[in-house]
Structure formats: structure tokens, C-alpha cells
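Hi P.,

Sorry for the delay on this. The queue was packed all week, but I finally got your sequence through. Input first:
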Amino acid sequence: MEAIYIPQLLKKPTKKENLEVQEFIPNLETLTPVRGNMTVSHRGNFLEILAQVETIVTLSCDRCLKQYNQRLSLDTSEIIWLDKDNERDKTLPSEREVAVDDLSETLSVDGYFEPDTWLYEQLSLLMPLRQLCSQDCQPPATAALPNEPHIDSRWASLEALKKQLLE
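Then the structure:
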């Protein structure tokens, strides 16, 4: 997806760009391409972004370590403020105290809006924090010998290395 030059968007008769999304987003590992629609509208002093997209990602279960597919569906809108002074903020240190009123997304009036970066951020926020393949997922069963302590089979390689180091 190409970046949208904000002043060029303002010159369009409808002041908006409709994008048909059907591609893989860089740095977002998905099983299927991201598909859907996205609209970027210039509203004077802000951009309004509307998006309805979906894709499928392959995740690893936190409990049993099996891989499973998860559908990500995004149906959202966001307002990004346009600020003439946005370029001067880049000279400030990256770690600084920010007032609550300043917690908003801004772009330069003469800058670019990058749809693929925005979609990457939105879809990343949809990823589940706790990745479980199902509600009744159980950790893998391990068989322990009667005289040996219970060791999870996933740690077997580490246990073998530990025994080698002790010898």
C-alpha cells in the first residue's frame, strides 16, 4: 500500500481516499492476506480513518504449545489530528513527560499517512494476550517414573544438558 500524501488528499473533490485492501502487511505474519476496505477522509484539521478488514493468524497456545489459527476482524474508526507543529516534536527527547491532553495521534499537515503501518498497529492490538487454543486446553501430560521427580517433557533437553555438565 502506498503512503497517502495529506495535501494531495485535500485537493480531491470528495477529500477522501477509498482503499481496497487485499495484501500481506509487512512484519505481520498472517496465514491469509489482509482483506477489506479502508477509507481515509480529510476533515480540515484531522483525518478520519474507517476500516473493515480481516485476516487469519497462526498462534501458539500458551498452555499446550500447539499451533492454532485465529481470525482477526477489525471494524474501527480513528481520528488523527493534523498539526502544523508536529515536525518540531521530533527534536524533543523520546522519553519525556506528556500531559493527558496530549495523548492523541498527530500527523504533520504536510506529511504522509501510511495505511499499512496503521493497519499493522490496529491488527497487533487485536492479538489475544492469553493465547489458548480452546477453553478446555490442558497442559501436556508427562509420565514420571516412581523414584524420579516429575519433569515436564518440554524441559527434557535442558535436563540432559544439565546431566552432561554435572559429569
